[in-house]
Amino acid sequence: MAESSNSELGQDKIPIEEDGPISIGSSSEDCGGEATEAMGKKRKKRKRENKTEGSLLQDPLVVFGSDIMMKILRHLDACSVALSLLVSRGWHGVASSDRLWASKCEELWFGKAHIARSSQVRGLSKLAAYSISVMDGKRTRIMKEDLCDHVWEFHFNEVAPEYWRNLDPYWKGTGPPMRRYFHPDGSLTADPGDEVWGGHESSYSVVTSFVGEGQIREHYVRINSWSRMSVSRKENWSWEMSNNLSCYTSIPDARKEGGTGPLFPFSCFPLIYMFKFV
């Protein structure tokens, strides 16, 4: 009986391997270790993300320095550079640099017929020169200085009498267009030998009337007693004056030293206009 009992108990014994400990499932200590390790990884990941986010939120001027920021700003359009003036004093110092705006001015002036005299004042910053140039380019009120500073091409329109068109090189194709010259004393002249001119005296006047708070009601140029000439400005900043019979167009003179047109005081062009480029 004893042997039988021992054999039965022997069958219920758990075999012990000599090469290692007993392994039955996972203990609570193992679960706790894995959880702790997972929490540690999450904390490290969060720290890395916070560090990355902090780097992204840093001021680019502080991160890159003024020289690299200058190179970056050179690739932006003028309006974007102007807006960067508002970021901080440091940004304003870089974004208002003459080195930066000198190239912007060259880009703006390229292909333009006329350069505003007000933008060529000695000692004026390039930022101010750009702002003034843009605003003057939008000006549609012609002044006596504009008339006198430029040489003007003249030709008759198609509805003009045939007699006059037959004398006009523009229609005959026999030579360059006729030219006209406006003078500060109010007189108007032509080149010698101009068949249309005929040597008679001629005068002009600029007429401008206003309504309300400086809003222009009428604006035109009159030569002698002929029909008034409406005034318009082209995309290249040249001027055009025309009526039903004839047309005057200013000849490009962008290389004229000191610029052309009226000399407006700088106070007429506050830098807030920088944000009206588009």
From TrEMBL:
<feature type="domain" description="F-box">
    <location>
        <begin position="67"/>
        <end position="105"/>
    </location>
</feature>
<dbReference type="InterPro" id="IPR001810">
    <property type="entry name" value="F-box_dom"/>
</dbReference>
<feature type="region of interest" description="Disordered">
    <location>
        <begin position="1"/>
        <end position="52"/>
    </location>
</feature>
<protein>
    <submittedName>
        <fullName>F-box protein</fullName>
    </submittedName>
</protein>
<dbReference type="Pfam" id="PF12937">
    <property type="entry name" value="F-box-like"/>
</dbReference>
<dbReference type="InterPro" id="IPR036047">
    <property type="entry name" value="F-box-like_dom_sf"/>
</dbReference>
